[in-house]
What we know:
Layout: H1 5-43, H2 46-80, H3 85-120, H4 126-169, H5 182-220, H6 224-246, H7 257-289, H8 301-326, H9 331-339, H10 344-357, H11 360-390, H12 393-415, H13 420-462, H14 473-514
Helix pairs in contact: 1-2, 1-5, 2-3, 2-4, 2-5, 2-12, 3-4, 3-5, 3-6, 3-12, 4-5, 4-14, 5-6, 5-11, 5-12, 5-13, 6-7, 6-12, 7-8, 7-13, 8-11, 8-13, 9-10, 11-13, 12-13
Amino acid sequence: xxxxxxIIEISQAIRDGAMAFLKREYQTxxxxxxxxxxxxxIFIHIxxxxxxxxxxxxxxxxxxxxxxxxxxxxxxxxxxxxxxxTEALKVAFSGGAVLGFSVxxxxxxxxxxxxxxxxxxxxxDILKIVDIIAGYGFxxxxxxxxxxxxxxxxxxxxxxxxxxxxxxxxxxxEDDPRNPAVIADNVGDNxxxxxxxxxxxxxxxxxxxxxxxxxxxxxxxxxxxAAIPFAICGFGILATIIGISVASAxxxxxxxxxxxxxxxxxxxxxxxxxSVILVAIFSMFVLYLVKDKMPDGAPSPxxxxxxxxxxxxxxxxxxxxxxxxxxxxxxxVKDIANASLTGPAMTIITGLSVGMISTAIPILITSATxxxxxxxxxxxxxxMAAVGLQATIGTILAMDGYGPITDNAAGIAxxxxxxxxxxxRAEALDAVGNTTAAIGKGFAISSAAFSAFAMFWAYTxxxxxxxxxxxxxxxxxxxxxxxxxxxxxxxxTLGAVGKAGFExxxxxxxxFREIPGIMERKAKPD
Length: 526
């Protein structure tokens, strides 16, 4: 049920804003994709250009479907929170699951379809296929850049406008309907953590598969090297379906905030752990089936399984690490809260300290996984570890999509005046959603690292590059420029956020100043 008239009106406003953003973003993206496709067709190959367009379109489609579901589910979640927190959790997680299934389903189907056409229609050899299909990953990467950065700039710009003027200057509560920026703030949650995250992990997912296909083609000299990761990812979708279906919450012991958040967190963790265990079992089954088909010079099925298992375990450990540093029940968040008693300066310092140290465990886990997977299965083991890490990506994305849906639901509950109990239930789910969104971000970064290593090793094998000498001035200059680029990119992004936030703050101030009756609830903001 969509809810009452107020819920439907607010949810539709959020949906209209989200779709308006996507329309504007995709118009710009279409021009970029067209220009790059023409360049690829002229200088590389027409088939690579077609794959580039297909990869971009697939990523856009996955993000659009996720956004469509999220903006349809937020109001339903708010309405369900009136009856029980368990029902609201079920609705929100189901909405997030659409994003997860869209990414893994479209990504795997797209790659398999392109591979099938090149192999059976054009009779291309395996090395030519992986060369052409790289364009698919390039297209997905292009969309990820636009969606992640563009969505993030919009999200934080809207946050600044809503919070600086609404909460700080005028003293009204969060998600108060008198705040002109409150709808834009809720739209931002979707464009950043639904469309943006979906495109980000779609890119990591397909590039990992392309990387393992490339190295597999070189080592196996046949399609078997590509069939193994495809089969594991296919079973990963089945594991995701089962994991999401078991992620149901029991009725909490009481209606306290702590009991509600603990109950929701346990339900989501149950779904993730179930998916991980099933992927580990299914991977063993896949590699058992091919044990008699391995060519000479290829790693043994047992070695490949251990490399894949290291990636599966790494994903689980990275998720737990992120949850520890972002959960409101753990010491890091409590330390930041205690620091706020002394003022904003200590809060910022403590927050930065916690944020910086939180990167240590994921990096150490990633490094250890790279070494372990390489030891067991050589160069083929590294991308297979990436496949293992991302085989449960559907469940992770369902958790990530759950976050902005519950955040929107909490806002709708406030704007629609649905009562204190409904608002508290939605806020409890939102608190857990903040952690799940952080887990999604940590997973995305780790996935990107594995994907980058997979593509790098694939490149070195294709061009037969055995070593990279640090004695070469060109290599050293490349390292310096590579280290510089993140700083330049962050500076440009922060500048764009500041500019968007400046415009948003001025607009909110203008409406409070020029539209009489907003604060008294006698007039609606624009």
